[in-house]
Structures are given as structure tokens and as C-alpha cells.
Design goal:
Layout (H helix, E strand, L loop, with lengths): L1 E4 L5 E4 L7 E3 L6 E3 L6 H47 L1
Antiparallel strand pairs: 1-2, 3-4
Length: 87
């Protein structure tokens, strides 16, 4: 279980699969961000992945033109999305 704290002062436990997401406070009903994989280390990983995605897309544009760059960008975006769901 992961702990979350609402602005109303209520602290509560949430399931681990909600880490890095948003849930509602059981006391006041407001949205509460749950700490987890989207903490600073996760944000850094996202920035590095986005930079790699942009670099690969640019290289594909130089090598194969617009159609090649679009194909590479969509393929890498799908892979990054799948990896983010697995983590």
C-alpha cells in the first residue's frame, strides 16, 4: 500500500497500482496526486525518452524523408507508451 495526503489534511492508503496517478480523497472528494513512479526520477526518464525519440525521428527524416520520420515517430511513440504502461 502507498500513502497519500490530501490538502484537507487527511492521510490515507491507496493500492500500489495507483502510484504515480491520481485518486480522490475519501474524506473531501478532491483529486490527490499519489507519489510513485512519476516522481522526479520518472520525470527524468520521460525527458530522456522524449529526447531519444526526437533524435531518432530527426535521423529518420534525414535518411528517409517525411514518411520515414512519421513511421519512426509513431512506432517509437507506441513503444514508449507500452513501456510506460508496464512500469
Amino acid at each position: 500500500m502507498t500513502r497519500a495526503a490530501c490538502a484537507c489534511g487527511h492521510e490515507f492508503e491507496v493500492r500500489d497500482d495507483l502510484a504515480g496517478g491520481i485518486t480522490n480523497c475519501p474524506r473531501c472528494g478532491k483529486a490527490v496526486e499519489v507519489e510513485g513512479l512519476r516522481d522526479p526520477a520518472w520525470r527524468l526518464l520521460q525527458v530522456v525518452a522524449a529526447a531519444g525519440w526526437a533524435s531518432a525521428t530527426a535521423a529518420a527524416y534525414v535518411a528517409w524523408g517525411v514518411a520515414g520520420a512519421a513511421a519512426v515517430a509513431m512506432g517509437l511513440a507506441a513503444v514508449l507508451w507500452l513501456v510506460s504502461r508496464a512500469l
